[in-house]
Each structure stands twice: as structure tokens, then as C-alpha cells.
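Notes from hallway chat w/ T.B., transcribed later so I don't forget. T.B. wanted the structure written out for a chain they're using in a teaching module, and asked if we could keep both sequence and C-alpha cells in one place. Agreed to drop them here.
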Amino acid sequence: QESFSQMINIGKCVSKLLTESIKKSFAVEVPANVTLGVMNMGEYRCPTPIQIFNRYKKQGCFGCATCKEVAQKIIENIPENPYIEKAELSEIVKKVEKKEEKKEEKPEEKKEEAGDKKEETKEPTKGKGKGKKGKKGGNQGPKDEFFINIHLKPEYLAEKLKECLLDGIKYPAEKKLKIGVDFSSPNIAKDLHVGHLRSTIIGDTMCRILEFQGHEVLRINHLGDWGTQFGMLTAYLEDQFPDFMEKKPELGELKEFYQAAKRRFDTDEPFKVRAKENVVKLQSGDEKINSAWTFICDVSRKEFNKIYDRLGVVIEECGESFYNPMIPGIVSNLMETGIAEVNNGATCIFTEGEKVPLIIRKSDGGFSYDSTDVTAINYRLKKLGCNWLIYITDIGQQFHFRLLFKAAIKAGWHVPPETRVDHMGFGMVCAASGKKIKTREGVTEKLSDLLDEAKNRAKKELVDRKKGQEEIKEKQQAVVEESKEVQKGTYIENEVEIEDASEIIGISAIKYYDLKQNRISNYSFSYDKMLDPKGNTAVYLLYAYARICSIMRKANITDEKLKELAQTTEIKITNNYEKELAFTVLRFPETIDQVLQDLMLNRVCDLVYDLSSKFAEFYTNNKVIGDPNMNSRLLLIEGIRKSMALCFHFLGMKQLERIQIF
């Protein structure tokens, strides 16, 4: 059932119609695969006729002699609907170059090769086999392969776009879930470094999308705030600041504090003994040592929050220490129920298909990361009642999480499909050399330093361009005078705007460049590529957004005026540029569905880039201000602006209504 105030997944609707047609045509249950169309050949394409013909041709394919007949029959039986204007055949033509056969080849190899050519080609090929009429030496008949191209009704797209403008872009989940997203998770007394970048922004984007759909989202920061290292840190704090309980000291750089404590631990045996004693005191609740631990955690937390604030990331702390009191009970329960067993003195959970177990209690009686993670997944699924858990860490931890999820199934905590648990693994951020990004001193680059550098580079570009606006104007290749006037309104005009814009551009550039990558792949960190104003970058997108805002200012269109236009103006789609604008906006639900299925956030980047590209194509070839269809076209580009703004929100990017092009 469609709702006036809610978007729908049009691709899913088209697929359902074609699936119904397939069932009516051939009395078989074959789901229609629908993908985005190409060029001007329709909004969608369906390759399923090829699949049906290949699957059933040995049985006669329901009386269809060719793939073309299969496709035609599906088209004829498409039910009446509000979406499809027309469906038409599209023939695939592939050529295969004739290769000279070698005499030493075996007959079976020739036959196999010829068979491969048949699968690849549409064009007739000569060979020694029988031709279409069964005569030797004749031409091999063409192997027909047909897609179905789907063209949507322009009036339907216009109607749905108008609904978005009136009611907002809304696509709530059919069933609201409680979802825990575990991301960022730095270690106390250490800096957030470049390695935390991906987990932090991937996790934030995932949370934003889920929250948009109306789910209850728990943003979990699984801090490394417990362990033997705190014996060392608290002992060092006692030595350096004996009165720390009465007078809170300034620790300066936490990294330096940690490194100094570690050097002392490695070289001073009495200190090492005292550090180990402090671990026992901390675990037993000693007031002074617990106060020292709390102080160190608070200092770290403040530093983390500075970075989170710059990134616009909201996250709730629930570190390892939170689960520590629960671990013994969980381990005992797993032993009593036979889920865990003792192996070589250690308490282990063995799972099906895995040779390596989770070790939830070491042979010396101590607990480990496995102990904490097993306890945490129990707490999140059973105590918090989460329906879905998402863990966002580097891909190197994939094996650990596979064991963890299998253990949760074995324990009866995770019951698919009632509950869902995913590991969103990601690749490494590398330097141009392909190795980890490090400073000249050979240490891992601090995340704050990366953000500062991106901001400074963005600011330099803005300042340089402000000094040479004439050069900028020459670079603009507008088709009409209107476009030239509009570009004037995109410039940042004062120092305060430059400072703010530099921060937005720099951080947006880093975020977008990361999120547009295939999540599981490594990528090379490059400021030049991130801040490139051409192509698929945040700078290009921010400029496109600013240009739309400038058009609205030029047309004297306020927010109130836009609401009035949306209520009183009929959106007219008069050419393919306009149709592509409307369709790209309405692809929003499909993108969300795909992201939640495969957890590939680069799909959001693909959509926002398509939105900006379609706008650029439209604006280059169509007049807006002063055109007879001006109001309709203003609403079309407002649909693009709203969609881009929402994508920016998902990606954690702030918008700029004015920006100088680099």
C-alpha cells in the first residue's frame, strides 16, 4: 500500500510486476531481476528473459523458440500499473574475433572452445559444426539475448517528486528494530589515530541511515578502558602527581604520558612490581587506584570528544570495564550448559567448522578479549534486547567475529533470522606507498593532525581563489548568461566564512573520500585527490549544492515561496534531462534498501554523485530563470537539493550555500 507521505522503492515495484508477468506467462516462480537502465534506454532493465530461456530451453522453454519470444511474452503480460509507460526489447550484440585453430589441439578442446564462443557471441561465426540448417560448414546461427527495457511514466515521476517536496523525503522501515552499532572504540590513554577514522565515520553513517528509518539505534563506543596497562598508568600517575586526588594535574599529551609509563615499566623492576599490584587493587575496587583510573579515563574522554565534535559524531561510551563484573557469571553459565569446555587448562567454546576456539578463560584463570566480547554480545542480545548488532572494525578481525557469532548461536543468544549480527570489516588507510600512514618519526599519524592538514589545505585554496576571482570566472564554462550570473552568488565573501568553510570542506573531503571507497578494500590517503574540485569528490558535490542555492537566491525563492510553489505548481517533465532529475531523486529508497542489505555505504556516495551530475547535465542544457517552465524546473532542482542535503547528512557532511570553486 502506497502512502502519500512516504516514498516507495520503485525498482522493487517494477520487479514485482515483471515477476507476476513471468508467473502468468510460464506458470513458474522466477523472480525478475531489475537493475538501473543505461543511457537513454529506460530507467530500468531486466535480463531475466535470458536466464529463463537458458534454464528451460532443453525442455522447450514453454513453446518459445528464442529468447526474444520469452521477453516478448513477459512484456505482453505485464499487469496494468501506474509506473510503466512502456516496456521494450533490447538485443545484446557481442562480437567474437575468429581465432585460428592450432593443428595440435584435441577435438574435445576445439569443441569446448566453440561452445564458449556460442555463449559469448550474438554475431554468426563460421565453424566446422552444423549450421542452422544442419549442413556442415554453414554459418552458426545467432544466439539471441534480449533484455527488457522499462520506461517509467513521466507523470508518475512528477507526482511522486511533488509528494517528496510537500511531505519531505521519508522512507521509514516497515518494522522498527533495536540496533546496536559498535564503532570507533579507541583505547584509553592513546590518541585517536588514522586507524580509527574508518570505524568512526562508517559507524556514524550507518547509525544516521538507521535512525532516518526510525529504528532505535544504540551508538556504542566499546572503549579499551580495562586491562593490565592501567596498573602501569596509575602507578606512574602516583609517582608524577602524588596529590592527584586533591589537585587534578595537567597530563599534557596522553600519548607521551603513556610512553613514559611504558619506558618506566620496561626498565624499572620495583615500578613493574607496583604496577602489577595496582592491577589487583583496581580489580578489587581500591579507592585511590580506582580514582586514578577514573581520572585517566576522563582525560582521554575529553580528547576523544574534541575529535568527535569536529567530525560531528555522537557516540555513547560503554567500554570493556562495564562488562568486567559480568564475565565470571557468563563463563560459569557457559560451562554449566556445556557450551564451553576445558581444553589444556583453558575454558574454550568450540564451534562448528572451526578448528580454533574462543578462549573465554585462560589457563592461568585470567580473562581475555574473548571473555569481554562474549559477555558483551550476551548483554546486547539478551539484556538490551537488540534485534540487530553491527560491529565495525578492520577486516583483520573478521575471523574473531566469525567465531564470536557462531558462539552466540551455539549459546542460543543469537537466533537467525529473528536476530541479525554483522561484522562490517574495512580495509586499511594507506600512504601512497601502500603502507600504513606514519609521521616522519615513524609513528602512526594522529587523526587530529590529518583533520588540521585537510582544513589548512582547503583554506589555502579558498584564500588563493578569493584573490583571483577573475581567474575563476574564466574557468566557468556556462552556456547562458544566467549561469554566469548565478555563479557570482556562489562565492564566499569574508574571512569568517572562509574559516568555517575550510573546516567543512576539509573534513567533508576526508569523510567522502573514505566512504566512497569499497569498504573492504585498502585505499591510499591523498589530500590532492580528496580536495580535487573535479570528479567524484566532496568539493565537487558541495559546489553543486551551492550552485543550486545560488539559483534559488537569484530567482528570489525563499523557503516559504518554495512551499507555496510545491502546493500550487504542476511539475512538468518535458525532456529526458528533467526526467532523469526526477528519477534520480526517487531512487533514494532503492539505495537505502541496498545499503541495509549488503552494508556497502559507497552506494550513498554513488547516489549523491549521480544527483549532482544529473543536475549539472540538466543545467548545462536547460534554462531555468526566465523559462516558461521556470517554477516547475525550480521544483525539480529543489528535489535534487533536498536529496543531496539528506545524503550529506548521512555522510556526516555539512552543507555550504556559498563556496568558491577551487
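Follow-up for T.B.: The two ends are 47 Å apart (CA to CA). Might be a good example for the class.
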